[in-house]
Structures are given as C-alpha cells and as structure tokens.
From TrEMBL:
Residues 252-261 have a biased composition (Polar residues). The keyword Manganese does not apply. This is PDZ domain-containing protein. InterPro entries: IQ_motif_EF-hand-BS, P-loop_NTPase, PDZ_sf. One of its GO terms (cellular component) is spindle pole. The keyword Signal does not apply. Residues 480-526 form a coiled coil. GO terms for biological process: establishment of meiotic spindle localization; mitotic cell cycle; spindle organization. GO terms for molecular function: calmodulin binding. Residues 1-61, 238-267 are annotated as: Disordered. Keywords: Coiled coil. It comes from Thalassiosira pseudonana.
Amino acid sequence: MAMHQTMEGIEPPSINNSIGASPRSKCDTQGKAVGRGKSYRRKSSREHRESSAPSSNMLAAAQPPVVLSPLSSRTAVDAEKESIFCLKREIKALTMALRTLNKHTKEWVMINSRLEIAKEELEAVLEDVNLTRSYSDRSKREDSFSSKEENDVLDRSAGLIQHVPTPPLSAKQQFRCHNSAPTQTGLLDGDIIAASLPPPPLLDEIEDDVQNLKVELDKTEPFSLEYFQIKKKIKALTKRSSSSSPPHGIESPNQRTNQRQCSDRSEDTFGGRLLVVPVDTSYADDVVAVAKSIPPQSSPRSSPQSQAMHSIQNLTELLDVVPKYSLEWFQLKKDIKATLLQPNRRLSSASLSSSTSTELSPIPLNRSRSSDYSIGSDSEHRLLSHFHPPSLKAAERSHFCNKSVIVLQSYVRRRRCRSSFVSLKSAAISAQAFVRMIFQREQYRQIIINTIAIQCFVKRWLVRRHNDRDRAFLNVQHQIEEMKIEKLSMEMKLFELQKEVGIMKNAKLRRELSQIKDEVIAIKAQQPSDPKHGIPQRGLFTVLLDRPGTLGMELEHHKNSKGTAIVNLVVPNSQADLAGLMVADIICNFRSSSGHELRYDQFITMAKAGIRPLVFDVRRA
C-alpha cells in the first residue's frame, strides 16, 4: 500500500462513500442483517441525500487516510451483493403483490410507493458499486507509477471524485455519474480519463430485468397502456445493455475525420463502390466478377463519388445494426437514398457532358403507366445490332453503352410489377456504374458483354416469370366472368320456368272450377221432386216433426217477426233432410198439433223439451 503512504497531506476522495461503506449500503446491510420488521423504516430520497452529503465542518477538517484490509474489503463486497440480492427480491415481491390489487386503491398506492423507494435504493447501491469498482481499478493502475507521478494522479483523481455532485435518486439515468467530470484545472489526459471512467453496468442484472419484463409482458393484455409501457422499458434496457461496453479511450472529432479520410484513400476502389449497389441475387455474381476484375484507380486524392460510396457503405453497416422499421432505420434508409442520387447529379454535369452528347438521366422513382411497350425479339435485335466489339472505337463504345443503359431504363420505367421494378432499377444502376468506368479505363469489351448479358437475362426472366403469371391470371379472370354470365342466364331461365308453372297451375284451377260449377248447375236442373212425401219443389209446404229431438237443422230467427226463420244448415239423412228441407228455405209459421201458432223461442223450447208432434210451414221461392 505504497499509494496511501504518499497521500499524507492530501485529503482522500471520501473513501467511506466510495468503497462499499456508503450510507445507503450501510443502511441496507444493517437492515438485511437485523431483518426488516415492522419497526424498520426505509429512508426517503431526501434523507439519503442529507445523510450522504458531507457537512462544511467535515470537509474543512483534514481526515487521515483510511486503509481497508483485504478482509474488510471482501466483507464490504459481500454486503453489497447481499443488499442488491435482498433489494431485488423485495422489488419482485412488491411487483407481484401490486398485480393482485386494483389500481388507485389505498393498498395499491402504498405498495407502489414502497416499490419506487426500493427501486431508487437499488439504483443507489448499484451506483455505489460502480464508483467502488472504478476507484479500485484506478488504484491498481496507479501502483505502477513513480512517486511523483502518483502524487499528480492522486491530486487529479481526488479532485475528479470530489467535484462530481451526487444527483438525487429521482434523477434520470443520463444525469447519474457519467463517464467523467471536469476538474478545477481542466480535463485530464486520455489515460487518466479512461482509468477514471466507471465500469459498465452489470449485464446479468440488466438481462434479469429484461426477462422479468418479458414475463410481465406475456401476462399483460395485448395493445393496452401497460403493454406499451413495458415494451418501452424492454427497449431501453436492451439499448443500455448493448451500449454498456466500457470505452478504452476518448477520440476527438478531428481524429475521426482523419481516420475516415485515410480509409477513403486506402479503400477507394471501383469494387467497393459497386458492392453497395443493391443488385439482384440472380445476376449478382456476374456484376461482382466484373467489378473485381477492374483494377483500382491510383489517384492521390479521393473523388467525391468515392467519398459518397464510402459513406453509403458505412450507412449500410449501421442499417444492419439498427432495429428494423424503427425511426433510426427509416432515417438511415433516407440518407442512403439521398447519397445514391448525389453521384448521378455530379456525373451528369461534369464527366458525361465532355465525353458524349448523350446524357445518362438518373432513374426516376415513380413508374410510368404507359402500357404500349412490350419486351420481345424486336427490342433484342435492336439492342444486339449495335454490338461490334473488335471494330468499335472509344466514342462508338461509349455511345453503345449509353444507349444500352437508356434501353434498360425504359424497361424500368414501363414495367408495372414492383419486384421487377426494384431488380431492374438495381441493374440499371450497375449499368450506369459500368458506363462511368468506360471513360476512365479501357476494358470496354468485358463491360459491354456483361451489360448485354444482364439485359438479356432480365428480359428472359420477365417474359418467363411475369408474362406467364399474367396469362394465368387473365385466364382465371375470363373463367370467372364466363361463370358469372352463365349463372345469370340460369337464373333468368329459372324465373321464366317458375312463371310458366304458375300460369299453368292457375289455368288448371280455373278449368276445374268451371267444370265443378257446370256439374252443380246440371245436377240442380235435373233434380226431380221427392215422390215419397209428395212435397213440391217450389211453393209452400208443411213439415211435420214427430221426433223433435233430432231436427238436424239450424235456423236463423228474424227479429222483426215472431214466427219467421231461415234455414242455414241441414244435416244429411236427418229428419229435416228426409222431409225435403233445404238451405235458404223460409219458415213462415210455427204451430203445435193443437193448431195454435207459436213463436220462434217457444218452438225451440218445446222442441228441446221433447214435446211432439210439431208442425211448421215452409215457403220456397
């Protein structure tokens, strides 16, 4: 411990608060050792700040350095681990109890406040552990210095720790003891700052928190407010765990710029620029082979195009790291798209205008809707008719490549399918890259052959893949239309048949009714008078009822007359029917065998009583 022997006259950097003996850790270890009973009360955040903040008298008085033995330091580390374990267990128990209660009740508010205090205490203990580890690592590194260097380092490190304010427990994580803080004399050197940086947070603890949050997320109702809050916490912890690797030094912006420029100069090749172009996998091998076969250009200064393509490569690497479909992901995609369009604009104004009269317009992002263009053998013959590799001069070769790129761009503009549009766009970008290299290198024949191979492959692929699908789709559409028309015709035929059946049924019923009527009329006309009783068919006749209990008829009495009624019903084979009585006959007189006349009600009463014989006169029109 030669380090502490050289610290006489120098105030130590609050060892009690940094090496496992902070008020928070003491309180936690004592509370866990005795046992948390009902009489135990946890300190609030204000009490923690007041107890941890040293008074002015204590700072004024010079304190002797405190040297901890290995046994005491080991005990402090064990106490810290025990306090962290107990706090985590308490937080887990309070969280489980909080789920079983209804929100915004008295018990829920009390347990929620206790849970927040426990979380704040856990953060404070973890902060003390980080400070302890950073101080111990710094002390181990300082043991190898000389005595003079040790004094300087201790002065600076002591000032660094003394001037770091203790944030409140409710402060955010970004305000809690970050990498370093300025001292009175300014920033420290790079090595001392790297030594004074706190170690990364405990990855195991962060992973445990993430696992607990995932378990809680499974139990939460999907797409609720708590569901999105837990998702946000999981995302924050994941970012924290990914960014928790300890930095080894601080790099200035100028150094980063110099390194990027050096890497641009060292990696400025056509192959590096071409590999970032999104070429389709079906013909990527040919394009990469052509790109690798071209030797790099030996230029002392990197061109703007090489810088742009190098930035595209860096953005592509960042795009693989960033979570997909996040805000940063879309921003990187937008930057890559903007950087891709910049070399086309510079090239169209500078190099191509001096070499050839035909300019290469950048491929538009929108697709044309003109459908009067078809890929066939005519366009292939027109494209291949310009190809004469042995006898072409430089101007003719450049004109041919420009024309082939324009033809390929026309394919891109006139195709409707989205997948083919993307692949053709990448092929056109590759062809434009080939044409740019024509004006700087002399490998015309190989570039022209590969460009034509790409164009022919794209045309065959489109004809084989998309046209067959279009034909099959159109055939299915025609079949569906024919089935619809057939269905409508069948429905019309069914309606007509139903109509004809109804007409036939109505005609048959009418014929049957007319036949029945004719038969009834004929029967009535041919019906003779009954010779048995000698009762005429028409006129006035008398009926004698010798069995009054079996009349076999229903009468309707006229209210205005005493002895008049109308026959409504005659039961077949009854006494009235055998007497010749018919429906609608008028009974004009009721009387008894004695000869005096009766009223209708008297006649009915005597008939029900069984008095006989009874006589009534019938008149028929």
